[in-house]
Amino acid sequence: MAVSLQEARELVLSKCLPLASESVGLLELVGRVAAEEVKAPCNLPRWDNSEMDGFAVRAADCRAGGQLRVTAYLPAGKSAENIRVISGCAVRIMTGAPIPAGCDAIVPIENVDDVNGVITLKTAVAVEDYIRASGSDIAYGEVKIQVGTVLRAAEINLLAAFNRLDMHVVRCPKVAILSTGDELVPPGEIPGAGQIVDSNAYSLAAAVREIGAVPQLLGIARDNFESILDKVIQGLQADILITTAGASAGDRDFVYETLNKSGVEQLFQRVVMKPGGPSGFGIKDGTAVFSLPGNPVSSMIAFEELVRPALLKMMGHRNLLRPLQKAKVKGILRNNSGKTRFLRVRAQDTDNGLVVESAGNQNTGVLNTMLRANALVVLPAERREVGAGESVDLHFF
Question: DSSP character for 28?
Answer without folding.
Answer: G
